[in-house]
Design goal:
homodimer; alpha+beta; six-stranded mixed beta sheet; globular
Chain lengths: 656, 656
């Protein structure tokens, strides 16, 4: 059977639904906000290679990757939202790169400006990481504009990298400290058809963890970084950069979460393209370990602040979570690639979890504020207290969104993720169209034996129904495969008013496989299908081994995880306990002009009046009942700062 | 009315009860274990001032304080447990100090050996801190042996300090970075009768926080410490060393907990001796803030690991607690001094809390292992995981006791605390004898108008009854004042079989004041009194503002706080929930040969079989009932390592 093909983001145009709105914000606010911050901080000008000792804003080894991710996002955006200004800015940066690129093809604004002699000398110096992001940007620019200008610049760089790392081995190390080049080369191969790039990607995967001289703690004989970060000793830990074993033998999802997820993504790419079973089994092992033991309910996957690392199994602290926005996005990349090896709803479920929770939480509702690390529980008073005695970045995530970070990987990452969200919606395999995400959109689909148009009408994730309409030439044997979301216990699918699938019945000719309901188009009256995914408020509990969440529940409605914020709840949310049989309701409200569904329920809190002069006393407090309001987790920290909690105490029912 | 006087530890000889056993362990094991470690690490030899560049074990600025606290403890121990060997070791160290003391009286083994030119140059360099501990050791040696040899050495040093810091101001700073000299000078005054020492103590308290040039971050122009500790930036925070305001204006209990408690102790001393109301009000304010908002149920008072600092109000994390052993001991010092200004059971209650919990937890049952910081909750797997990626000392307390620490203040502190435990039992005011702690013991008491012997017969804290017998010359108007423990809701006091005090009745001639029941000796048949303090298992809850303990209870029986250890409970203790109406029982068992009362109760845990491939799912798990065993908190980590918890989930009763 032929391989599954993702439908390119270009073929999917979003309407006025949830994601269409986010793409408007992205195109109207985020793309400019990030450019302006990058311009202010010198990142844009650095690309001109005009910085000299004594000037402000000394370039940093990873700045090119920030700019490149902005370029990639801008390229996607320009396709559907033409904008003279942004286009000019984008082309100008490409001019800088074109003019600054070394004869041999090398480009990195830091090294060309500050340390030309140290090119490819230190594997922790992010050169292949920045190169990879520039390649992804070039591919996006090519798809978006049709111009090969940027693409050709980057193929020249890729050719030089092949020479330095594979053909001639002139580089001082074998595998990069921070992965990214691996998956970027696959994209470059897809865009150019040049097999050498796919082979070079495989080379980087094969050689990693096999070279004794490749040790990430070859940190320039200790001269870099100038002021070692709190977690610098992590650089002495092979697991940190997935150096502890060759890719095929990696025992567990571990180390720096973004490096890990980018690496696992490229491992999936290569196992798919080369039919490498051993590599695929490693991917499955790492996938299961990450998603069944080391992931927050929001999708966050870096539980360990020190080293921005994946936590130990079931070690998922809430107040000191890290849950880096980039790691959630990177996990969606990994999921997408696993899906394209074997379509399974469990991968699309995780992409959805990141889309509506872990990744989206990194962006403010107005599109100009960002979280790098994401709290699952926040107590501003604790952050503020610690600010007096310690750099709180090392202890708790921020409770206020920032406009730019010193290490600003996350803002342009969420920019490009939202701008290309369309590529997560559809995939084809021969004459079957997989519908993985429910998004108000129209798309042109090429099947093996012809093409079709598909249109989704829905206000998902706020409403339960999705109308799907296919049209175009009728393709003999064409079928649609609809994801039945993992969170939904009782979906119903109807054709022309007749239920053809429900939790207790499936009509002839329909097949449910790996969480996808396959329906031949021939069975659809006028090509129309109605889906209904009931969305009651669900109290989720965590595996008993997750000690931080014992006795607590997290609220979900559909794919959206909710949280409590102090601003909506005038009582101690950490002392609050949800009643055993709460009456839940929901209503639609705006926050900063963005409409969303909020949840309401009943709970109890201890009466505090008689506690003023007591710290500990025999139990037996009296409770008072309260109604609480929960907001989507992605929408927190958009109003006045206050306490926040995802995991809420739940009245115990020990006979249960 | 004349001032209250503590009865010196010398007058109180412990029998075979709880503390008598601990003093045996102290005299048999601890005093030798600490000496041996200090000898191995070079601390003892350092006192000979023979160290030279190139040798191992370079002296450290605070080593003298470690040795001095051992000397103090050894001095107490020798009084009741004569031992040639220990006596010889003690006298030998005194010889070293005598021989090494500078003509002007100065002594610090680090500065005399390594940096003679930097004497009294840097207030963060602990010279007055080490001096203070040597003075306390000298006073103990004088009381214990009657010899003034060591005392005279230290008065010479005190005289030089007076000259350098008060009379001539030749020192480079005004107030020490780490307090201790202040309370030591008061002890020196008590032992010598030399008022200048009391006045010098007052001088250090008055000047602190008033001198602009006194800023703790005058860290030798940044040359020390060579490798800044994680929390070095704390040195830039005035609050860290109680420099943020003059003593009388200190707004809250804050900063490095040991510095704070030592300082508050000396503030209480001075307010008492000078009748300084403003200083006393500051003490009351700091006392209330520390004990009503910033103290663990065990008595631990440093909640903030970074800076070994007192936490924010109600910020009491369990797994990342610090709760330094020294801070608990220091809080007992503070309580003792507050008590001697105005006798109140609330002070003796805190001393008791530290005696049986916060302080005692720092010592292993065999007397040779120690905790510096004390966990309220421990997950060895988390410590071990983080060891791979980070120095866990900065994140969680150890789960194994150690034999010595680089900064080894706690081991000799618990040594001297236990060795002098007798001084917390009795105090006199005119002809009233205050009995604050219930300890199997005999004591000789001098009252204003005569003397008496008092004997306590009890197996407290394991049993509920205490027999008190007074004898000796009959003193007209003599009275005993018995503490009614704050944890006890229904004490009964009987004379000759007749109840003279209970929760609902008090006999004529008896008075209850500030938690003390005053009974004229004339009303005691043959001078005998029987006390009964019922000790049911009590579930304590924390103030609702302590978010970490919401929905949880801590078990206490009498003054002893309990915890669960994995070794006794073959299930997930963090998922365990105590039933709403548990049947509690208790039984006596040994751990490493030490008998103690253990508690047993009923709870439920979630059934795990069906969770293997699930991380999150809709709530509704089934539970299975279990019986649990709790051990005294002080006794944890004496068997195979495992998970531990003080705060336990409790079945909610929201109507309650």
């Amino acid at each position: 059977m032929s391989k599954l093909t993702q439908v390119n983001w270009k073929e999917v145009s979003l309407g006025e639904g949830f994601w269409g709105q986010w793409q408007h914000t992205n195109a109207r606010a985020t793309v400019n906000a990030i450019y302006d911050r990058f311009h202010e901080t010198g990142r844009i000008d650095a690309m001109r290679l005009s910085w000299q000792e004594g000037m402000d804003n000394k370039p940093h080894i990873f700045w090119d990757s920030d700019v490149a991710k902005w370029m990639e996002g801008a390229a996607y955006i320009l396709y559907y939202h033409p904008d003279e200004e942004i286009s000019k800015k984008l082309e100008t940066v490409i001019d800088y790169i074109e003019q600054g690129q070394d004869e041999d093809g090398y480009f990195n604004s830091y090294f060309l400006t500050c340390e030309p002699v140290n090119r490819f000398n230190d594997r922790t110096a992010h050169e292949l990481y920045t190169a990879g992001h520039m390649m992804e940007a070039a591919v996006a620019h090519f798809y978006s504009t049709g111009s090969k200008r940027f693409l050709n610049i980057m193929t020249r760089f890729a050719d030089f990298i092949e020479k330095a790392f594979k053909l001639e081995g002139t580089a001082n190390y074998s595998a990069p400290g921070h992965q990214e080049i691996e998956l970027a080369l696959v994209r470059l191969w897809q865009a150019t058809g040049e097999d050498r790039y796919l082979e070079l990607s495989k080379h980087f995967i094969d050689i990693r963890g096999t070279q004794a001289h490749d040790r990430i703690f070859s940190v320039r004989n200790g001269t870099w970084p100038a002021s070692p970060p709190l977690n610098s000793q992590l650089l002495y830990n092979d697991t940190y950069a997935q150096d502890d074993a060759p890719a095929r033998e990696l025992p567990a999802a571990a180390g720096h979460a973004v490096r890990a997820m980018y690496f696992y993504s490229s491992m999936a790419d290569i196992s798919r393209e080369y039919g490498d079973k051993e590599l695929y089994e490693a991917c499955l092992r790492l996938w299961d370990d990450a998603t069944l033991r080391k992931m927050y309910v929001t999708g966050g996957v870096s539980a360990e602040r020190f080293g921005e690392a994946i936590g130990a199994a079931y070690m998922l602290p809430n107040q000191s979570s890290y849950a880096e926005t980039c790691a959630s996005i990177a996990m969606a990349f990994f999921a997408q690639r696993m899906f394209s090896i074997e379509p399974d709803a469990r991968y699309a479920d995780i992409i959805e979890r990141q889309m509506y929770n872990g990744a989206l939480a990194g962006l403010s509702l107005d599109g100009t504020g960002f979280f790098y690390d994401n709290a699952l529980q926040s107590v501003p008073a604790h952050n503020d207290f610690l600010k007096g005695v310690h750099d709180t970045r090392n202890l708790f995530p921020n409770y206020r969104r920032e406009r730019v970070f010193e290490c600003s990987c996350c803002p342009p990452n969420i920019l490009r993720f939202i701008a290309a969200i369309g590529e997560y919606v559809y995939a084809t395999q021969e004459d079957t169209l997989y519908i993985s995400q429910y998004v108000q959109s129209k798309a042109n689909i090429k099947l093996a034996s012809g093409s079709m148009q598909v249109e989704q009408t829905t206000n998902y994730p706020w409403t339960e129904t999705v109308q799907v309409q296919v049209g175009g030439e009728s393709v003999e044997g064409a079928a649609l495969a609809f994801r039945m979301p993992g969170w939904c216990t009782n979906p119903t699918v109807s054709i022309d008013g007749t239920v053809v699938y429900s939790s207790n019945a499936i009509a002839d000719g329909l097949v449910l496989k790996n969480g996808y309901l396959h329906i031949p188009v021939s069975l659809m009256t006028d090509g129309a299908v109605s889906l209904s995914f009931p969305m009651p408020v669900v109290e989720m509990e965590a595996n008993p081994l997750v000690m931080e969440s014992a006795g607590k529940v997290a609220l979900m409605r559909g794919p959206v995880v909710y949280c409590l914020e102090a601003v909506d709840n005038p009582f101690n949310i950490f002392d609050m306990t949800i009643l055993s049989q709460p009456e839940y309701s929901h209503s639609t409200h705006d926050i900063n002009g963005v409409p969303m569904v909020m949840l309401h329920g009943n709970a109890a809190v201890r009466i505090r009046d008689d506690w003023n002069q007591t710290l500990y006393r025999p139990s037996g407090s009296r409770y008072t009942h309260v109604s609480f309001t929960a907001v989507p987790y992605f929408a927190w920290a958009n109003r006045e700062p206050g306490e926040m909690a995802v995991w809420l105490q739940k009245e115990s029912n020990l006979s249960g």
